[in-house]
From TrEMBL:
Protein's name according to its UniProt entry: Metallophosphoesterase
Ranges where the Calcineurin-like phosphoesterase domain occurs: 213-381
One of the GO BP terms on file: lipid A biosynthetic process
Cofactor: a divalent metal cation
Source organism phylogeny: Bacteria, Bacillati, Actinomycetota, Actinomycetes, Streptosporangiales
GO MF term (any one): UDP-2,3-diacylglucosamine hydrolase activity
Similarity comment: family membership: Belongs to the metallophosphoesterase superfamily.
Keyword Cell wall biogenesis/degradation tagged: no
Transmembrane intervals: 30-48, 60-82
Source organism of the structure: Microbispora triticiradicis
Signal peptide range: none
Amino acid sequence: MILTAVAVVHVYLWRRLVRASTTPGSRLRRVLTWALVVLAALMVVTMAGSRLSGVEVVRVVAWPGYLWLALMFYLFVFGLVAEVPRAIAAFALARGRRTTPGTAPVDGAVDDAEDASVLARTVAGESSAVPGPAAPDPATPVAASGGRPAGGGPGADAPAIDRRLFISRTASAVVAAGALATVGYGVTRALGDPVIERVPVRLPRLDPRMSGLRIAAVSDIHLGPLTGRGHTERIVRMINGLEADVVTIVGDLVDGTVAELGRLATPLKSLESRYGAYFVTGNHEYYTAEGPQEWIEELRSLGVRPLRNERVEITHGGAVLDLAGVNDLNGALSGDGPDMGRALGGRDADRPVVLLAHQPVQVAQAAAHGVDLQLSGHTHGGQMAPFNLLVPLQQPVVAGLASVPRQGGGDTQIYVTRGAGFWGPPVRVGAPPEITLIELRAGG
């Protein structure tokens, strides 16, 4: 499916940005065509290599491959948007030609440079004519305005053909400029500092003595071929600056093995919090060559406690809150999936519980188990708009705070963080990276 989609998009880009804007047989068309072929192959190698090869191998092609993926996507998006003004301009041109005396009829479906070139050669009676005004015969009367031959001679259609090529080239230039600007902006956002989101959350069952408890939440750090140790150090520094009582890492920490990325994760040992740092697996932990278990042990050695379908008690101000964590849904394929019953069963029902679960879709089960607040990631907030419009097809919440009714009354609230890193293209548009500080407050 991915290969098919890549092929279809590249064919579309070739037809609209290359074929429609260049003349048949020209060097420019050949160069641009081969460039598209090479970039398509590079992107496929990059995406396949991220699953089949080590980080060092992927790093060689990752930057150009993933940047082209982002640029291809926005060329496609802007190209679709440009179809409307392109169609209007083509319609106006065709209508003008039909109503101009002495011009040959032109099918409105002829809307690219190659067809225009063929038409030009036919009208001019030449096999190699380039679209454009033909030189008038000295004996041919010339109109007073515009220098066009009078009466529909050999050069009568050429200016209209030039206008068609001009429309295609203008549309292509606008599409390319828009895509380049969008990707450039997205790169600066993805590689820049995460935004600190401060979110107050009221829990009806929270003991007033615990009001003000601060939970730092970060997800989707995605240590991998495009990130360095500085990425982790910056996140740790920003979290420590929040002076949180609890630190939570809600999945998708890595895109590689401990051998490949262990040094990038080392700064996590410097995380500071009053009651500890906790971690739950995301889907990407199950994509690594060695599986999640080696990262579970690595994080323990760094002072971050994994919550593997289990819970701990957080005591603050003489009151107690349950902090629970479940494995990601992808673990079910290897017998390591989420177990809400194990994580939440047998607890004091009067005590509030905060659940760490990587995917927002797990909130339905959380609500059935009486969870007060679920912290999730996974969506990246869409990462590159308009992908945020597609996320609801799979997940109930794209980003931010929402609530789900519980049986027996009350709501389970869920906060979905956009994540502090990126997956694939180092690009974020409309969804800046985020570190969240949740402040719990008593009352409804």
